[in-house]
Amino acid sequence: MLPLMLGSPDISFPRLNNLSFWLLPVSLFLLLDSGFVDMGCGTSWVVYPPLRTMGHPGRSVDLAIFSLHCAGVRSILGGINFITTTKNLRSRSISIEHISLFV
Fold it and tell me: Can you tell me the distance from the alpha carbon of 9 to that of 100, in angstroms, rounded to the nearest whole number?
């Protein structure tokens, strides 16, 4: 939708956009896999291991944290692509004040 709103032929970095897209299934797979490894993740929604034990044994928390890292990298790459496309590829007839609020 971004190129259509800006009047540009394409986004700035299509391969970066592709990498950002394919990091989502990797992140989801790692998060689901962390629930089935050992005894499960067991960190609740804050992703913080319980303090009454000294950490969480096994690799499940490691997989969940790596999943969050993949999702964060995905978000940063998408944001870089949005900002670069908006700055460099918008149509010259559209000023920065007249573009849509989404952009």
Answer: 17
- For residue 99, the model assigns a pLDDT of 81
Please give the single-letter amino acid code of residue 48.
Answer: Y
pLDDT of residue 24: 95
Question: Among residues 70, 77, 80, which one has the least CA distance to residue 20?
Answer: 77
Residue with tokens 């804050």: 46
Tens digit of each residue's pLDDT (9 = 90 or more) over 45-65: 777 766 666 666 678 888 888
Q: Where are any strands of DSSP class E within 1-103?
A: none
Q: Which residue has the tokens 């391969």?
A: 15
Count of other CB atoms within 10 angstroms of residue 29:
13
Q: Could you tell me which of 80, 84, 85, 78 has the C-alpha nearest to residue 2?
A: 85
Long-range contacts made by residues 90-97, C-beta under 8 angstroms, separation at least 24?
Answer: 90/6, 90/7, 90/8, 91/6, 91/7, 91/8, 93/7, 94/6, 94/7
Name the pTM for this structure.
Answer: 0.78
